[in-house]
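DUF2281 domain-containing protein structure dump, as promised
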Amino acid sequence: MPTLKLTNEQVIELIKQLPTEQQLELFKFLLLQQWGQWESLSRYGVDQVRLIAQERGYNWDTMTEEERETFVDEVVHED
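structure tokens r here:
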């Protein structure tokens, strides 16, 4: 079977021409292909934020959502 070579732009234009149902099917396929990496990165991020909180005298698991948001904002914007 011959291989068709397309640019990224061409592929995107082809996808735009698909019916919505087929676009959703493609989206689900692509999402599931990356799910393991995203899940791993998410677990890593949670582990890291817990460690940083602990190093600063906080317990991430007992913090309210507002306290967590404030904490993350402070960490992200510190010098």
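The CA atoms of residues 65 and 71 lie 10 Å apart.
lmk if u need the other ones
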